[in-house]
Amino acid sequence: MTSLEFTQQDIESLVDKLAAVTSTLTQQERMLLVAIFAAAANQTQPSDTPNAGLLPVPEFWGQERGTGARRGLQPTTEELKRQLLDGYVPGKDFGGSTHIDKKVVG
Fold first, then answer.
1. Do 12 and 41 belong together in one domain?
2. DSSP state at residue 2
3. 69/39 same-domain check
4. Could you give the 3-state DSSP secondary structure of residue 103?
5. What beta strand segments (E) does 29-89 contain?
6. pTM of the full predicted structure?
């Protein structure tokens, strides 16, 4: 499986950018964001590169494994929302379509 390598600087940069919006989040939204980060942390593996980690490269249904992020194929905001709704609340229908054209898996 293809992996995404990242460093502490990458994480700090991302968190700094998210800090700009965290003051607008409810406590529930902040806890959900932390839960998403925790789920990602559980998938992190050490890298051969010093001070770096690895996460599985996101995949899109219908695309060759491990190529989605490298090809610049990015899911829309709606697709990400559907992915989280389907992933975190299995079996629930939040009024969206049950057909998913692109699904991020990994």
1. yes
2. -
3. no
4. coil
5. 45-46, 52-56, 59-60
6. 0.60
